[in-house]
Amino acid sequence: MAVLSRARSRKPIDGWNWAGNVFLVFLLLFTMFPMAWMLLTSIKSQFAALQYPPQWWPTEPTLSNYTTLLDPTNPVGREFLGYFWNSFIVSFATTILGIVVAVPAAYAFSRFKFPGRTFLFFSVLLRNMFPAVVFLTPLFILMRWMGLVNTHGSLIITYLTFGLPLSIWLLKGFYDNIPIQLEQAARIDGATRFQAFIYVVVPLSTPGIIATSIFAFIGAWNEYVYALTFLSRQEKMTLPVGVQRFFSEFATDWPGLMAASFLMSVPVVVLFLILQRYFVRALTEGAVKN
Fold this sequence. Notes:
The structure is a single chain. By secondary structure, the protein is an all-alpha fold. It has 14 helices and no strands. The radius of gyration is 25 Å and the shape is globular.
């Protein structure tokens, strides 16, 4: 045992492993620094935020920016909470409708053989080859013709147009990795194709559905250009458009802007952490499912 212990202690250090760990730590610090600076600026006063050289740590931290934004009796807080609720409605509706459409569409592309299947599948992805701003004017004209300008429905339809192709592509690849023999076994036991899809395929595809939902929600939550173009009424604005009201011609409320930006990022982070746990659990359950 002593010889074995000494042999282990003399094991050479893996330089590539150490270099990889150092690089990951650097990326973590590089990613967290903007968030930390945003948080520190949000608890400063306006005078402290404009000091030069910058005050790295606030000498008199305050939570007044957060209390103002989260106070429904305050005009600024009432506006911010309204933007927050609008963003949640649009993002949630976009995610749910996108999953409802993308799941059966991806399953059809994965399991069924029909004329033009390959061409249709790649034509779905054709839209992602162009920048989103290219479709700004045509979609605005379409939404105005449909009477959906200044409504959340215009954003939901637009985000579905952008998010569905990638959602279908992601889920199709996930369904391709699910053995078709599991569905055949369910069919032999008397289940219909729809029942096999609901009770066998959908539970096994939970990780893919969750990953696609996260992508769709974050994309709709952070979108700015179409929300700025389609919504001109203040009561209909979403958060990315609403936070620009902290800018003005002569001065910018930097602490308020950083507080609003930090609060805007919290739901996305919390949602990702919660769904990540279910993602791992669903993946392990699917691996041992009979």
